[in-house]
Amino acid sequence: MKSWSEVAEVQGLASKIITNSIKKDRISHAYLLQGARGTGKEAIALLIAKGLFCENKTDVEPCHQCNACKRVASRNHPDVHWIEPEGQSIKIEQIRNLQKEFTYTGLESSRKVYIIKGSDTLTTNAANRILKFLEEPSKQTTAIMLTENSQSILPTIKSRCQIIDLQPLNPVSFQKQLMEKGMSKENAVLMSALTNNLDDAFAWNENEWFASARKIVIQLVEMSSKVPDDVYLFVHNHWVPHFKERTEQEQGLDLLLLAFKDILYFHIGNNSGMVVFTPNDPLPEKAAMYFSQEKVVNILNAILQAKRKLKQNVHPTLVIEQLTLQIQR
């Protein structure tokens, strides 16, 4: 999404709220953009920042061609500061450095913008320090906080921001976009269940690691229903070596969740709802004969619990080991 008109097509309410503020010259001193991955948080943050610095703006639309717009887009503008998690969190030292930057006047104007990605990962100390900016707002300072998990953000921070809720994209519409750009229907259905981001969808679609991840998930389901005694060894020989990084582990659990949802769909006679398995694949039927509908529901809950444990920094090998045991019970 590179313009407010494009944002309006998928995030109508958010676009209307922000563009009305731009037209009235009433940009908020702090925004909290909350929504799932792929709903346009970064694109909207960039549009706000470009609009504040653009040299050739047309109504609410930045030109994207001027020097300021190009530097905002490439994250090289001296008065637009990006903060992202270092490791699993945004640390107090990062906020101290931001505060130090704000003691200086703007290099090219009196206005400054800071954008905090993953603002739900602020440590308690870092979150408390960021409150100083929010409690003493400057008319020339705009904070844009981005999060997929607003429940983890301090209420005192949320109360000082204008909250913009971004809605999940329509999966059918997203599938259509993917197929129009050349993706097969089978893969488009799977990608639409995993992301709302076109770039991510095509990157995964062409990624050998992702193709192997899907195979490992299918093999895990198959072994769990055929030779459950060998699953633990399979996890250590195949799952753990393949899903190394935290994002990869989360994606593995997302695929496993969708695979067991497919089995549940088979139980209720909705083969068309399957995304990991194809409608003609015999494995969901075989797995449904082994796992009762009640058992599948329990496994789905166990996978969701495993995802929460990963977020809580429980060791990933321990998480998948415990999940494997729960699937076998």
Structural account:
The protein has 329 residues and is an alpha/beta fold. It folds into two domains: 4-165, 3-Layer(aba) Sandwich (Rossmann fold), CATH 3.40.50; 207-328, Zinc Finger, Delta Prime, domain 3, CATH 1.20.272. The protein contains 16 helices and five strands. It has helices at 4-10, 12-23, 41-53, 67-73, 92-101, 124-135, 155-158, 171-180, 185-194, 198-205, 208-226, 231-242, 246-267, 283-290, 293-311, 316-328, and strands at 30-34, 80-83, 112-116, 141-147, 162-165. Strands 2-3-4-1-5 form a five-stranded parallel β-sheet, sandwiched between helices. Helix 11 (208-226) packs across helix 13 (246-267). It is elongated and about 65 Å long. The chain starts with a helix and ends with a helix. The mean pLDDT is 91.
How are the strands ordered across the major sheet?
2-3-4-1-5
Please give the domain count: 2
Helix content: 55-70%
Taking all Cα atoms into account, the compactness measure Rg is: 23 Å
Q: What portion of the residues fall into strands of 2 or more residues?
A: 5-15%
CATH fold descriptor of the largest domain: Rossmann fold
Give the helix tally: 16
Task: Give me the CATH architecture of the largest domain, please.
Answer: 3-Layer(aba) Sandwich
Q: Which structural class is indicated by helix and strand composition?
A: alpha/beta
Q: Provide the residue-averaged pLDDT.
A: 91
Order of helices and strands: HHEHHEHEHEHEHHHHHHHHH
Q: So what's the CATH class of the largest domain?
A: Alpha Beta
Give the termini separation: 46 Å
User: What is the approximate shape?
Assistant: elongated
Give the total of beta strands. 5
Low-pLDDT segments, ≥5 res: none
Main β-sheet: number of strands, strand sense, barrel status?
Answer: 5 strands, parallel
Q: CATH superfamily assignment of the largest domain? A: P-loop containing nucleotide triphosphate hydrolases
GO biological process, one term: DNA-templated DNA replication
Protein name: DNA polymerase III subunit delta
GO molecular function, one term: 3'-5' exonuclease activity
Organism: Virgibacillus profundi
